[in-house]
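REVIEWER CHECKLIST
Item 1: Sequence provided? yes
Item 2: Single chain? yes
Item 3: Sequence as submitted:
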Amino acid sequence: MKDGKVTAVRADCGFRGLSSASTVDLVAERLREWIIAGWFRRGQMLTVREVARDISAPQRLVREAFTRLRDDGFLMRMARGTAVAPLRLEAQQLLKHRLPLEVQLTRLATRQLTTFGLRLLDRIEGEMVEAQRRYDLPNAQRHNYRFHVALYRFAHRPDLLAEVQALWAGFPFDLMTTMPSRLPAVADEHETILAALHAGDPQCAARAMHHHILHGWQEYQRHYPLQLERQPRLARGG
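Item 4: Structure as written out by the authors:
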């Protein structure tokens, strides 16, 4: 693995002093980030030994994280070992399921966000914009993922977040990252969401999230028209 990936994870992961469950959660979350960011390519073979070595984690924890990600759909078991799951062709069906869930999580989180939460989201957004400025697409997408996860955790609905993350597993985020206009649009759309969050307006935040997700889908359709037969009809959130 490239040094940039190893450095990023080692800076984020402090395994000492955490429970086994916490460290498995941490390893699994970092692997989700890498897949969505495109650092792990679709279909790429992964080994417990290599991942454990590169993030300085015990192989037992990495093996447990692999099991979780296979259950979530991010990884799949192959004859030669474990591979990153391919894109699912029914991306429009994934969108139809994830859109109302993410709008609901946004609405719930807005009502429960703390000052710390708002500062955290502002910081993640700033890091994403800085990665964009450097044209560091994987890190920009990684911070985009973190923005959504951090926000949704304030909804205090881990069941809904787990369902959303399972839907993300097959969604073409890696392809969307390469679209020239998408990441600058993501930053602008996040700013609209943040404005609603700072105002404590759940309905406005939900509408902004609905627009953010749907606009990304529409951009994807324009760039990859042959991969989709038709755009799903979606009810507006709010």
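Item 5: Key structural point noted by reviewer: The longest strand covers residues 75-78.
Item 6: Recommendation: ____
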